[in-house]
Amino acid sequence: SKQMSANKTIEEGLEFIPKFDDNGLIPAIAQDAKTGQILMAAFMNRAALDLTIQTGYATYFSRSRQKLWKKGEESGHFQKVEQILVDCDQDCLILKVAVDAGQCHTGYQSCFYRALKKDSSKELKFIAEKVYDPKKVYKK
């Protein structure tokens, strides 16, 4: 069937056909290429993805500000993209990136610096230390 062959193209073909959602966005997970640490989860629209591919540096789409942002444009903590992975459905990306210290705007290396406490449904605990002072980086 036509649907079957379309799925096979998406799932096993070698053509990059990213599937954006109804808002024109695709989730993108940034992962430290060296350590494997997950740094952040964000979204890209077509323009952000194209810029990322063209420049070699991660650009995302901010849903709150409704605009493109090049990671590091304010903080200096850029993400140099070494590889872009796509999942089986082509509706989620992983960006393997080369980074320096402090990828989260809060001062942590990763945006995932808290974890749900074991046997709790709503209590969090810190699992990391800050690596920089955000007040010095973001002059706000």
From TrEMBL:
Example GO BP: L-histidine biosynthetic process
Amino-acid biosynthesis is among the record's keywords: yes
InterPro entries, alphabetized: PRA-CH, PRib_AMP_CycHydrolase_dom, PRib_AMP_CycHydrolase_sf
Annotated Phosphoribosyl-AMP cyclohydrolase domain residues: 40-113
Protein name as it appears in the record: Histidine biosynthesis bifunctional protein HisIE
Pathway noted in the entry: Amino-acid biosynthesis; L-histidine biosynthesis; L-histidine from 5-phospho-alpha-D-ribose 1-diphosphate: step 3/9
Keywords, comma-separated and alphabetical: Amino-acid biosynthesis, Cytoplasm, Histidine biosynthesis, Hydrolase
Source species of the chain: marine sediment metagenome
One GO MF term attached to the UniProt entry: phosphoribosyl-AMP cyclohydrolase activity
E.C. numbers: 3.5.4.19
